[in-house]
Amino acid sequence: MSTRETRKSLWTGGIVAGAVRDSLLKLNPRTLAKNPVMLVVEIGSVITTYELVHHQLLHVAGFRFELQITLWLWFTVLFANFAEAMAEGRGKAQADTLRKARAETIAHRIKNGGTIEDVPGSKLRAGDLVKVAAGEFIPGDGEVVEGVASVDESAITGESAPVIRESGGDRSAVTGGTRVLSDEIIIKITSNPGETFLDRMIKLVEGAERQKTPNEIALNILLSGLTIIFLLAVVTLQPMAIYSGSPQSIFVLISLLVCLIPTTIGGLLSAIGIAGMDRVVQRNVLAMSGRAVEAAGDVDTLLLDKTGTITLGNRRATEFIPAPNITEAELADAAQLASLSDETPEGRSIVVLAKEKYNLRGRELSAYAATFIPFTAVTRMSGVDLDGRQIRKGAFDAIVGYCKEKGNSVPPEVEESVKTIANAGGTPLLVAEDGKVLGTIHLKDIIKGGMRERFDQLRAMGIRTVMITGDNPLTAAAIAREAGLDDFLAQAKPEDKLALIRAEQAKGKLVAMTGDGTNDAPALAQADVGLAMNAGTQAAKEAGNMVDLDSNPTKLIEVVEIGKQLLITRGALTTFSVANDVAKYFAIIPAMFAGAFPVLNVLNIMALKTPESAILSAVIFNALIIIALVPLALRGVRYRPLGASALLRWNLLVYGVGGIIAPFIGIKLIDLIITHIGWA
Amino acid sequence: MTANGWLQIGLFFVVLLAVTKPLGVFMARVFSGEKTFLDPVLRPIERLIYRSCGIDDKREMDWKEYTVAMLLFSVVSMLLLYLIERVQQWLPWNPQHFAAVEAHLAFNTAASFTTNTNWQNYGGESTMSYFTQMAGLAYHNFASAAVGIALAIAVIRGIARKESKTIGNFWVDVTRCMLWVLLPACLIIALIFVSQGMVQNLRPYDTAKFLNPQTVQTTGADGKTTTQTVTDQVIAQGPFASQEAIKIFGTNGGGPFNANSAHPFENPNPLTDFMQIVMMLALGSGLTYTLGRMTGSQRHGWAVWAAMAILCLAGVTVAYAMEAHGNPLLHGIDQHTSAMQPGGNMEGKEVRFGIAPTALFATTTTDASCGAVNGMHDSFTPLGGMIPLVNIMIGEVIFGGVGAGLYGIVVFIILSVFIAGLMVGRTPEYLGKKIEAYDVKMAMLVVLIFCLIVLGLTAVAIVSPFGTSSISNPGPHGLSQILYAYTSQAGNNGSAFAGLTGNTPWYNVSGAFDMLLGRFFMVIPVLAIAGNLARKKIVPESVGTFPVTTPLFTFLLISVILIVSALTFFPALSLGPILEHLLMHAGKVF
To answer: Confidence band (pLDDT; 50, 70, 90) for A202?
Structure first.
């Protein structure tokens, strides 16, 4: 895959410093209000701080313990803020690079009368026409309405090779901030200031316009519910403790509460979401919303265009099958001669194959008295006349007609080979000399490397792949079989595509597709996930909900993985967070009541040293685990293309069982350390 | 523990498994309006009921209308019961001439029977007339069970249907449940019970002379000890075999006698005891099959059944082990099992049943939200007695009360598939229905309400004089008594830990609210889930979908149930039964 895998180090100095500052700013309760779990921790911290001061004034003993608890509670909030700030910081760093591309440009706007005036690029509005000459920056997003030019889009895509942009057709969209390298074009601006592609991209990676995705909202409800349940459990514990004759201090109760509520996932939740979007952008895909990325994880059916996605753009000659009494070398020689001036990729591949197989060098036609016969719709053949030889190549029926004209028939062996090739999904091409068939060339669609494995992975994820092609059903079936696709849609017209999507959706399935042409736009809009190619038309880009800046259709598969990874990371950390509570109960409950009821020390299975050290250790563990999991939250849990049950079993083992065991070890270690250095 | 004991427990699971499919299929047919063998008799009666009540049985309701109908039905019948209790002295069939039931007790009892709880702050044979028992209480035993099953069926329909606004017709569901499921079964069961020696008459109470008069010392409220010689015993009578059938089969649990199924007239012999144990869980178990059948995923039904059965087995094992082990403080006393004695902790247990059936009964009655008892849970060892308590805290989803168990476990299934869905990287789905924010919200609300009323009311009672004055044993055991009372009522179980004096204004009124909230406030979000699920499209299953038919699902469901309830109630339990258990081993009892 040709993605720029930008594996930046997580802990770049600048980002960390910015994140530390931001985590303090984020203490503002109004900011925290969108994260109910952490808001509860902050309120708890405020209460303990107040009590701490209050106790100091009253000279109540136990300052050291109370101070430490208070500080670690504040750290818990700060660590969660830090995680979010880190994720945002990484996005901001990316946004800054993009902003550089948004350098102020001077646009040459064409006024109604046809005169040109120079205005700042930021003043352009949708509908304006601008002229851009070689060497100038394109001032805004738009569509080429006149001319053709090569454009350097490296600022957006990172790809240094220039691309051709021309009016009409499917290669007409241009992006603001890119540079025209040659020629001159007239562009119709399609976006208003602040709404350009770059602007949207910057906002997205900065997380400024981040809206919670549906699954994130549902998870937030679950976490808030759990928080309220634990709040109830702790609040009602005090009366029971009073009845049992061992009322608890507010510090201990708040410590218990903070340890029980799902702070780990609560603290990391928004970081996971921001980082997920960031990962999408890193792969040069611009998603219009987080919802779209999440939907990608749910996709059931993937529609893929054959050409360019599954196969290399063009067919290639792979085999010469000579007619009876003709050697393969003779056939290859004739085929090469017939193709020497054929500039189509197929023609070139014949020359190359002959060269590879028989070491037949490409010959300069000018050396011979050669006449090139181009392909015409009437003859449906091309070839060459030289030294009195008449060499022709073309489709089966065209060559058969040509031979019959000359009074020759086609040997049955050749007919047989034609059928075999067609059945295998290839395209047979006949070569004839002076009305006599020499043999058949096997032109084959070349399936991109690694596609079969990709499709196998998708199948393991439960995603059905459907190939869309204009080929006849026979060819389509053969290619689909070879590439390992589940299904195909042959002789597809754009409206067939739309119908297929609707049919799948009617069955309740989520459909993803890629497209670039204007005639793809309805299908892109209908699909649940529509990945438009940046090189495609503006219409396609607007219809889809994602744009791939590299214009690489296989990117869709990666977006699906990111979508799934996003959900898995949330689920795994939620499980981990809740599973952690078991150990915390065993640390804190005996610590709370062992004073009044020494028998309860049986529950102190970690053998924590003192009640203070036990509670403190649990609180410290609870805070530190947030920081420890920041890298996991930012990078995402590794996605394995397994079936759902296998995946769940694995994640339950790691994050569920692991989540039960890890804190027992962690709390015990912290207890050993803090009692050793004398904090408790 | 003995081989015989385990054999009885094993037999119980085998019989329960055997009745699951026939009952499940039958209920699925009844509520889908398919043909059954009872139709020739019952269809005319059914049509007559609809005609006389003006019910259009073809018209379906959306979830809100269904809820309103259910609430209306419950409120009206609750008021009716209250009224009967309050005027029973003027009504027929009152040979013992019982006076009107006190207002707060009548309120508690009305709430209790309407909610299928059957918490009893009274002794049946000394408070309620035959008329009240039959027309008031037994009627509610049928009605509340039918409501529970109707709700479960509505929820199943919500899961099974696609893009549908409606989830059935409440009146039809209740009527069909009464006519097809409850009445015919109870008729047969009552006859079997009568054949085994249960009472079924309208006679005044008998009096028998003791062969040896007994001298009894009692301490009055003023602290004075009075000595009294008792020469005769009053033997209560009544039309009770018929009540017993629905008490058990409808998981009501409110017995006509104060001693409930420990009374020889309510549970004469081991056969009736075994029948009661199986019948408590029969409908709850059968409904899992109905769930599978109506949603077209029979294996899912069995996966849910397996989760319930495993939790049930775990409970029985602990309770049986604890009770059979006996009391560690009774040194020098033979607690071993022998031909002459059952051994173990026999305090509060009937000798005609012994340890294993009592441990099994205590487990199933709390699994099933039934609340009938054949022994005193209060007299169990601390951890043995914790099992009934934990069973209720789990949310009455181990087979559960008729219907309530099923719709209760749906809440946990939703939470399980939500977590599982996230962990496999897809928007969570349950049998093709996407589980979204609204469903999670409603499911959390159910968990939250239960936790709020149980812990909230316990917290208030435990530090208030009106709360603690009712407890009979101090220390952690007292906490257990109060905790058990509110848990049992919120869970609509109705079994009592005993020892707590429940018939006080505070416990009657707070308990009534506990029961009403525990039933209706939890049902509303559940029906909202049903309505919301019914509206949704069905997403076809793929390899990427987490299957709800596998052992892994069963394991996950059990884990979620245990984790949610353990995390909620562990602090309270640690100051109650766990502390009491540890203190007992340290030689301190309460």
So the answer is: confident
Q: Please, what is the Cα angle at B395 between B311 and B158, to 5 degrees?
A: 100
In 3-state terms, what secondary structure has residue A187?
strand
What phi-psi label fits residue A131: left (phi over 0), alpha (psi between -120 and 50 degrees) or beta? beta
How far apart (Å, rounded) are the C-alpha atoms in residues B340 and B354? 12
Residue B84 — pLDDT band, cuts 50, 70, 90? very high
* Residue A671 annotated as catalytic: no
Are the Cβ atoms of A243 and B427 closer than 8 angstroms? Answer: no
pLDDT score recorded for residue B437: 93
- Closest chain B CA to residue A224: B444
| Residue B525 three-state SS | helix
Contact in structure between B305 and B551 (CB atoms under 8 Å): no
Residues of B in contact with A563 (CB under 8 A): 425
- Provide the chain A residues 296-325 that lie in CB contact (below 8 A) with chain B: 297-298, 300
A581/B567 Cβ within 8 A: yes
* ipTM value greater than 0.95: no
Q: Which residues of chain B does A651 touch, with a Cβ-Cβ cutoff of 8 Å?
A: 423-424
Instruction: Provide the phi-psi class of A192: left if phi over 0, else alpha when psi is between -120 and 50, else beta.
Output: beta
Q: Helix/strand/coil (H, E, C) string of B143-194? A: HHHHHHHHHHHHHHHHHHCCCCCECCCHHHHHHHHHHHHHHHHHHHHHHHHH
Q: By C-alpha distance, which of A235, A581, A600, A608 is closest to B576?
A: A600
Cβ separation of A567 and B559 shorter than 8 Å?
Answer: no
CB-based contact B503:B463 (threshold 8 Å): no
Give the long-range contacts of residues B256-259, CB within 8 A, separation 24 or more: B256/B124, B256/B125, B256/B128, B256/B133, B256/B137, B257/B123, B257/B124, B257/B125, B258/B120, B258/B122, B258/B123, B258/B124, B258/B125, B258/B126
First-to-final CA distance of chain A? 54
Burial class (CB in 10 A: 0-12, 13-18, 19+), A187: buried
Tokens 């015989």 identify what position?
Answer: B4
Q: Are A350 and A339 in contact (CB under 8 A)?
A: yes
Which residues, numbered 207 to 266 in chain A, qualify as contacts with chain B under a Cβ-Cβ cut-off of 8 Å?
Answer: 214-215, 217-219, 221-222, 224-226, 228-230, 232-244, 256, 260
Facing residue for B423 by CB, picked from A228, A462, A648 = A648
pTM: 0.87
CB contact under 8 A, A648 and B456: no
Q: Which residue of A has its CA nearest to B585?
A: A599
CB A320 within 8 Å of CB A592? no
pLDDT of residue B169: 96
Report how far residue A600's alpha carbon sits from residue B570's, in angstroms, rounded to the nearest whole number: 13
Please compute, for residue B149, the number of CA atoms within 13 A of its CA located in the half-sphere on the CB side: 35
Mutate to test the interface with B, among A211, A236, A564 (most CBs of B within 10 A): A236
CB nearest to A645's CB, from B547, B574, B578:
B547
> Mean pLDDT across chain B, nearest whole number?
92
Distance between CA atoms of residues A595 and A599, nearest Å:
9
Rounded Cα–Cα distance for residues A523 and A515 (Å)? 8
Q: Which of A612, A610, A614, A613 is nearest to A585 (CA)?
A: A614
Please classify residue A556 by burial: count the beta carbons closer than 10 Å to its beta carbon, then call 0-12 exposed, 13-18 middle and 19+ buried. Answer: buried
Distance from CA of A507 to the nearest CA of B (A): 7
CB count in 10 Å sphere of residue A449: 8
What is the pLDDT at residue B236? 92
Could you say which of A128, A170, A305, A445 is catalytic?
A305
CA distance B262 to B269: 10
